[in-house]
Amino acid sequence: MEWLVSGAERELGIERRQLALGEGRQLVALVPARWAGSLRQGWPGPCPRPEGLSTAELSALLQRSNYKLPAGWTRVSIQGVRKRRLSRWQPPEAGAGPPDLDSLCGFMSHVAEQNFRNLWREAHAHCAAAGRCRTRNKATATSASQTPLMSHATPTSASQTTTTSYGTPTYSSQTPPTSQATPESTSQFTTPDLSNQPTNPNLAPPTSTSHCTSTPSSQATPTATYFPPTAAALPTHTSRAASLDAFKAALSRALGCSLVRVEAHEGGPSLAPAPRPIHPNLLPAHALLETTEALYLVQQLPCYTLRDAVTFSPAKLAGSHAKVLFVLYQALQALRACHREGLAVGGLTLAHLALDEKLFTQVRLNLGDYEGDDDDEEEEEEQQQQPEEDEAGALEPSSEPRDLRELVTGWVQGRVSNFAYLMGVNRLAGRRSGDPNYHPVLPWVVDFSSPHGGFRDLRKSKFRLTKGDKQLDFTYQMAREALWAEAGGPGARVHVPHHIPDVLSDITYYVYTARRAPRALLCRHVRAQWEPHEYPGSVERMAAWTPDECIPEYYSQPALFQSLHPDMADLQLPAWCTQGPAAFVAAHRRLLESREVSQELHHWLDLTFGYRLSGREAVRAKNICLPLVDAHTHLTCYGVVQLFDQPHPQRMMGPAWALAEPPALTGRPQAWRGQGRSDGATPEEEEGAQAPVGEEEGAGDLEEGTEALDSLSALDGPSAPSLDVPPAGPPQSKAWGPGEKEEGPVHLPEGFNPLQALEELEKLSNFLTRGLQSSPPDLPAWDGPTIPSLSCLLQRDMQSFGVLVAEIFFAQRLRPLGLEASLPERFQAVCRLAQCRLREVAEPLQQAVLTLLHLQEERPGASTQPPHPALFHYPAVLAGLPPPSPGLLLSPCCPIIPFPAYFPRLHRLACNFSTPGQGLPLGREFVFSLWQQLDRLLDVVEPEGLEILLPFVMELLSAEGTAVYSAWYLFEPLARALGPRGAQRCLLSPLAGVYERPGYLPGRFYLYTDCFVLQLMVRLGLQPFLTSLLPHILQVLTGQEGTAEAQGLGGGPEDEAGLSYGSREGKEAADSGSYMGCELSEGEEPQGGIFGDEQEAAGQARPSDGSSNGEASGEEQGPDSETKDGMILPSPGGQDMGLAGEEEEEEAAEEEGAEQAAPLCITPEGRLCEVLRESAEQEQELEEEELTEGKEQKILLDTACKTVKWLSAKLGPTLCSRHIVRNLLRLLVTCYFGPEKQQFVLNGEEDVPCVGSIYKHRPVLGDLVAQPVLECLVYVAQLYGEPLLTYQCLPYVAYLVAPSNSRRLNSRKEASLLAAMVLMQKIIVYLSDTTLMDILPKVNQDLLLPVLEVLTSPFTSFPGGAQARSVLGVKTLSLIALVCLRIGQEMVVQHMSETLCRFFEGFSIMPEQREKAGESDTPWPGTPETDAADWDPAALDELDEVFSLEMAFSAYIPFNCLIGDTTIRRLLRNHELVWGMAARYQEEVSGRGAETPPPPSPDTGDPWPRSGPRGEDGASGTFGSAMVGNRIEIGPGARPAWLPLSGDQEPGSLKQELGRSGRCLDGNWLAHWRYEVGRGQQDGRFHFHQIRLQTFTGHTGTVRTLAPLPSEDFFLSTGRDRTVRLWPLYNQGDGTGTVEPRLTYAHHRRPVYCAQQLGALQQVASCDGTVHIWDQFTGKPIRIFDCFDSRNPITAVAAMPAPHCSLLVGTSDSVLHFIDPRKSGLQHEFRLGINASAGLIRCMAISPSGRSVAVGFSSGFIYLLDTRTGLILKVWPAHESDILQLKSTEGNVLVSSSTDHSLTVWKESDPKPLQHYKSPSDPVHAFDLHGHEVVAGTVANRIGIYSLDGSVPVATSKLSWENFRGVLTSLAMLPAKRLLLLGSDNGMIRLLA
Fold first, then answer.
1. Beta carbons of 617 and 607 less than 8 angstroms apart
2. Mean pLDDT: which of 237-246, 490-499, 511-520 is highest?
3. Measuring CA to CA, how many Å separate 1782 from each of 1659, 1714, 1738, 1785?
4. 1871 pLDDT tier (thresholds 50, 70, 90)
């Protein structure tokens, strides 16, 4: 690779610092993006150099793990081919186009033609070879005495060989030489796309020499050498030039780029641009550069590759085989594109396939395979291979083992040092030197307390030693408990039990290298603020501080300890090291190589790279690493790699009991020193004393023994551990006589184990055999020419593709091969694994591996040399097919790789997603074109394909230009295909992100139309929509941006709407509210809504799907898709979701306010496409008239407001109050938050009704923002009546104004006071006279007086200053005036006197005003002189500005006219002060010459009336209104012109009637609604109070089943009267009325015992022994399934949850049938009659995921089986008698009831029940699930509520005769509305709460 580095630096001008070696034969370069982009237009000159970046920074930027690059810079890969070494080959001639392999006819024709041609050529080649062999034998016999011309000439190069051989007349281009006959099928067998040229001589297959008689080497002729057929076409120089031109042309066509010459005097392209664009699955090129010596290919460096996915993110490809198949499908598409251009891809590896997060694959060409293999290249490569470190000491540069087997054996036997072995293991694990995220790691071995001691415990990880076992156990246990808590919930796992986050983090790496790293890098990665003193200052501190392992630089580079920063000292060395960093590094290295470390190092290897990274061993060692267990699906190029799955062998250091001196033998001479002989024999003693063996001699003996054992191990098997042997010439010893006795025992050392050597040998053998597999046999060496033919290169592509397929599944087992293993090495390893572990390969790809690698039988060319550079040659006919090629494998008729039928469409869609530049901008047209393709794809796609498709859609939903249009077009078809559960998991979060996206988005109002909102409710389920998306829809009413949580939506811990009005609890809750006590700065913005940081946990409900029906008022009739500006909103659902249909029109005409219903659901899918196309045409017309942002914002506001009104009617009173009204009230506060919302709007700028406004007509900006919110609240009040105002809105107002414990006022409290005044004005207008007078004392006490206390307080200043206090004063004065106008003069004096006094006392607080009035000595209540020291100066300034002369004039005159001068003088204690201030204001205005204010009375010009109330005949005050009791009747025109109320209000606007519709709350509905509103939102339990809400009459017999639709606005019922009825679920009347069915299906002939909605099809399935499928909109039958066997009737029916369409039918013969309602006939059936005594199938329950079904039998047994395979998972006797009912819920939980009076809760995986309830008298024959509760009923009319987990005691109650009559026969829950449906034997159905 040195030539490539030098060439890139010399010829391309890229500085060497900008280059780094990449995987394979490529360079990674950091270049300017502009320079790389300009290469296509021509040579722009040398690459610019980075300025201001150090070498360390450049090295970090060149690493793939660094995703953040400097602006304007990019990473590219550079490959090169030297022209002089380019392999010569000839591309295929132009012929007919590629064959048609997609159709069966075309495929069979192609197979027959290819097989015939291949067999013919094979036979012809054999005959020709045999004839030539006979000819040569005769010629050799006649000229045996002569030396052939070529027999002594050994060709030294390919050119010489070719030139000489083709000088012989025997070899012609038409007839290949005999030596070329090794593989019979080279060109035509590899590529069917190229082999349809019958007259192409260069593609003829070479013949095999294996059938010929070989000649001795001494008589070898040129014919004995293999020559590729393409080498015979041209002479040497012409062939090389032609090959180069053909190669450049093919490369340019395949990559779609022109060739650019890199010359100083010439630039620009030398070839015309490619005629067609590049294939999407080929990695595009920046440029193809040509210099005088080489060709360079510059491409964008991919972020991730397939190797990264299988190594670091295996979960990305897990879950289904379709993901791997899709990746391979794209790779074959790229191969076919290259082969059609006559270009081979090269030896494919996992690193050559670039992936993105969507699994879109692009193949990178491997140009290095086009170079020949010359000796000089091999020498050059050997020179480049250097050891990891020169100081390693144990490895020479040429002797470093590259294979892990050799490396392990060498280390165990002591031939490889610890340092070199660890570096080799890091290299094989893929760790890259210089990569901060994936740098090599070495262990810390000592604590540096002494030069020879303080060794670390290598049996524990560094993280465990630093953190301690207690903290690791705590971390693991907490994550484990959190995982259990979130089990069964939707979404990915957030908490994963683990001990260690990583082995070496990037922060730790930079801290380690802080002395040499640039300051900018340290500030970027470690800490933004430069604090050099906070970095560890010594090696001891560094080792003690870090929980991560060490890096190799601490054992090899002394410069790392010397600091480059002037303010950071050098890294201090231990006290025992005084000779500098070099001496410390040497000592540190010696410690690493010490005996103590070597004996324990294998434990550290097990922890870092071995078997203790996973499984039980990891748990025991507290070594569970997070990246290995978190199952992350995001791609990454670094992580933790497990190389070994077996315990690592220990290094052979000699046994621990081998002491320096031999053991003492009592009474005998000492034996010779040593460890004894390996055979255990005792040496004889010598009479004379033997001198001890010296150290040098012992060392030599050890070496001799090691060599001897090595030689034995080479013969007997794997290398054995080395043992010490006795020294040569054992000492002579004295023989013991037979009569001698031992005088003492032999004292053996502690730990003596004579079998230790054998045990270690066995461990090493097991490790090498099981962990690393057996060594692969070597392929036969190629000794022929190095000129490959194109056919061989294409053949090699298919073989490398087969190797790649196997490597995907054998990745973990093949890691010991390393990253740079050659193709033959990979091939042999894969073949070995495939022969014994083929089951590990995915089943659809097992046949592909066998075929591509030809493993079914012995390869015919295995004993001979394969065609270079192919691994072997394929036979002429392989399993009846031609040899594999990309086109053949991609054919849908080819059985080798069974690609799903939808893959072609999915691939086209993925290509359009990834390459949107086909003339369509990334906007609405692009999304619409994708929707057209998606609609056709979803008809045939499978769930695995949807999982592949979803990431592409997620990307569109996250892009700003396509987010809205993607949601509008793509949500409905995708959600329909996914089902509710899948839609919640995959689409809910992206949709919320689209709603939360700030800023202006074109077409955003589409997402707020009622038709799209209805789709959200149907496809996601009611409860997920209400909790996750509805707050975003409501939020737009205020024009606010950001998340709903930021606006305080979604609920809070304090259920403010449920506080009783004026109760003590409400005040205490308000006082303790966190937002009341929050001390926010004046300009602080809200973060958590008006209630501080508390957020309510949104409850998760079961996913639901189904139809929806809505209600709207009369004003909403007409097309909902029309805006006020006439814009048509296209509906993706296919129709309007407002009022439509004949039934609705008839009902609307019955009476005013009657129920008005929307269609049950969206239109059938057949109309969807038509409507979407129409909507697209309408959008195109609208696009011509481009909408401005302001106009579209107005459309958005109107659309959202209309949708909220529609939702309010559709959801019903309880859900509307719980989810809409509560959030609207919270949003109202945000409308007045901030100083900008409190600024007055100029007169005439906006026409905003402001009832009762006294301070002229000047609304604030917050009034404009709050107008849509108030409009929606008023609509809900008109819909459900006055109780909504009195029982929900008024308590919320009291909650807002309740005083807090702190005197300080924050911004939220300020906004709350303003919102409370505005809301109260709206409420007063719509309250009746009786209600107003009833609540008036509470209004004064709990609302007005607390506000006046804050308004007039001199102790508290407002965050908004005087402006905020002024606005609050105006709003408060307007509210007081409105109340006074409503109640009249007499009631004002009686009820409002205290309030008026408290307001006007605000004028007396300021001392200056009191002095001017001459009242400085008079104390005023609330302002004692002693408290003046505590007054806030800012508050005084605000009061001075608010209670001004103008305020006095504006407040005094109206009240004087209303209650009279005498009365007001009596009420106001500071009347003279206020009157004087008003008079001075009048004088000032008159003095300035301004227009005199209008007179206070129309009858007189006197502005200061001092007489009593005007009016003689019963009129109240001067308003001309008549007093009727305590109510004021205001006549038309009676309002004085001078009263500055809102200018354009109609007469009588001070009081407006809400009206009375059929939906108004009354009677039992009101009682139930009041209870539900008062409940906290976190209380999800069902409380049964027996409140009768509705009665449904129509059935004439027993009601058998009740089935609510998922939207809970309709339900189905079946009865013995042979009918199925559809009923509406809307509140009507007071609960005593009856409701008629909306639709009746009467096509059954027998009593109907089952009815369910098919969620995926929006149809109904009912059964009376015959299954009927009918339309829920029209009631017309669609399909009828008769009983399958007249002797075995249908006994149970269950519908699969969406998106599944199947219907499960159980018959009396214990057979489970699967029916597809879309077509006639059966899908399949499963027979369950294993046990003859099982009985009849009584009931079935399908899990929410649809993967399992539980079948209950009459014998009490329950069968659990897999719906996908039919395998019976579990069978158990659940009950003693007949099972009555079964239900399944989340978490694999089953609930069953039986006639044995028991109700049991089961866990599918547990043999014992979770809960068991026993009814004392009657069996539970009907029950339903509500969250974690079971609501059950008995024939004795008892209702019981049971808990699934037993946490709540059982609650039972007996139904009263008034609420329920008859015998209970069926039961169903409405979980969202918390209502209960009960069916009886008399045909009556009751709705109870």
1. no
2. 511-520
3. 23, 19, 9, 10
4. very high
